[in-house]
Design brief:
Largest sheet: 5 strands, antiparallel
Number of strands: 9
Order of helices and strands: HEHEEEEHEEEHE
Number of domains: 2
Strand content: 15-25%
Helix content: 25-40%
Number of helices: 4
Strand order of the largest sheet: 4-5-6-8-7
């Protein structure tokens, strides 16, 4: 075969290098996509591990009356369940780094009005409390990382930390968001007063 002086095109080695480079970029894109998909799936599934159960009262007085059954919301990973009031409608949580980020319908609606372009996206800005469980007794002189005691049990306690400020971009909605945040926190605190261990 005779080579021409001004021959144009790729040699075999250049062609192989281009194919390898494209394959490598494709593999990186595939890997990153799968890692992100698994992370999102695990966060989404964490909230679905919670359950709402009906618990009819065993008292004969309440059984004969038309008192509705108490609904409980279970934090399976924490091993506790709380009575679910109307104030906590749509209660859900997601787990990240052993913190249980809690949200409900009222706060979600207020956040949508307060941040319509979703500039404050993410698990922490969409919650009104983050719960965590620690073994032992709650410290008598709590430090910053100890959170606020929610419920003390014999061998462990559950504590919470709360957001520092509202994720708000619409100033006129700030007070409504602050009200929803305060009501959700109070309802959760009240519910934990009646919390039970999951048997």
């Amino acid at each position: 075969m005779k080579l021409l002086k001004n021959q144009k095109g790729f040699s075999l080695i250049e062609g192989l290098l281009v194919i390898i480079a494209v394959a490598l970029i494709g593999f990186i894109i595939f890997y990153v996509y799968n890692v992100n998909k698994k992370a999102n799936d695990s966060l989404n599934n964490a909230g679905s591990n919670s359950t709402i159960e009906q618990n009819p009262s065993k008292s004969s007085e309440q059984t004969t009356s038309n008192t509705p059954a108490i609904q409980y919301f279970s934090f399976k990973e924490l091993g506790v369940k709380i009575p679910l009031s109307k104030s906590l409608a749509g209660l859900q949580y997601k787990i990240q780094d052993n913190y249980y980020y809690v949200n409900d319908d009222a706060l979600a609606a207020a956040k949508t009005k307060c941040d319509p372009r979703n500039e404050f996206a993410g698990i922490t800005s969409n919650s009104f409390a983050s719960l965590f469980k620690k073994n032992g007794q709650y410290p008598k002189s709590p430090e910053l990382g100890d959170g606020v005691l929610v419920k003390q049990y014999e061998t462990f306690y559950i504590a919470a930390s709360y957001p520092n400020g509202p994720p708000c971009t619409v100033d006129s909605e700030l007070s409504a968001y602050a009200k929803a945040l305060s009501e959700s926190k109070q309802a959760l605190s009240n519910a934990f007063k009646e919390a039970k261990l999951i048997q």
